[in-house]
Design a protein that fits this description.
The chain has about 250 residues and is an alpha/beta fold. The chain contains 8 helices and 12 strands.
Length: about 250
């Protein structure tokens, strides 16, 4: 797993306008949330700065939010307090989840925001999926979103610079992604993310972090979900789309 400790303070510049408000982020999953029972127990692992977890708690769900980054967990707790939303926060990576929660605890587990590629290779990815599967009740669902890595790899190593300023907390920033695409799928890839904030006086503050990732094909993910006892119910995978969502139920 990798950090996000440096990016935690500026992570809102990486979240789209449509998902910045907790209620709107949760509403983007209305179709799967409709499958949940009243007072559902939900886990948001890789919770980031907590927009989804806080939005789910606002709908009356019993929510736990976890992340491998201590700073992300701190920011989620702060957002929960700001919105007076009861969210339990725990610092844990995927493989540590069974150390904190009993098997068959949750009705739904979210793993969103393009996080699974930080698991180290196929072995780490299967271990992460196995941990999430263990925590689901029978019939419970994993909701996972992912970059379309087949598309990412065709573009090769590159520098992506946002063509617009993003405004958050009264400050503008330019977001830059630097991609290091390895020769082979199974090799470690890198994404460096930089947020260059510009204040009213024209001063620039840059926060950046180099992140490791191990990409995967959609067919590999589908097979690995099956391997850990999850059956794919829904998929929005499109090889030409930037991202997709998979909903898989525990059999």
């Amino acid at each position: 797993m990798t950090g996000y400790n440096a990016l935690a303070e500026v992570y809102e510049w990486l979240i789209s306008d449509a998902k910045l408000a907790p209620a709107e982020f949760a509403a983007s999953f209305d179709d799967v949330l409709s499958l949940l029972p009243p007072n559902a127990h939900v886990l948001d692992c890789s919770c980031g700065t907590g927009q989804l977890a806080v939005g789910l708690a606002g709908l009356g769900m019993q929510v736990v939010a976890t992340d491998a980054s201590e700073e992300m967990v701190r920011r989620t707790a702060e957002l929960s307090e700001e919105f007076r939303a009861p969210v339990r926060t725990v610092r844990a990576d995927w493989q540590e989840l069974p150390d904190h929660f009993d098997d068959d605890t949750f009705d739904m587990v979210f793993c969103v925001g393009n996080s699974l590629h930080h698991a180290v290779g196929a072995r780490g990815r299967v271990a992460a999926l196995e941990s999430m599967s263990r925590l689901l009740r029978r019939g419970g669902r994993l909701v996972l979103t992912s970059r379309t890595w087949e598309l990412v790899r065709t573009r090769g190593s590159r520098l992506d610079i946002s063509d617009r300023l993003v405004r958050r907390n009264g400050r503008n920033a330019v977001v830059v992604y630097r991609w290091e695409i390895a020769s082979h799928w199974e090799e470690e890839h890198h994404i460096e993310i930089a947020v260059a904030q510009v204040d009213a006086a024209g001063s620039v503050l840059v926060r950046s972090e180099l992140l490791s990732c191990w990409p995967y094909r959609y067919d590999e993910l589908a097979a690995e979900l099956h391997q850990v006892g999850l059956r794919t119910e829904r998929s929005t995978y499109n090889p030409e789309a930037e991202n997709y969502m998979v909903v898989a139920s525990k059999v």
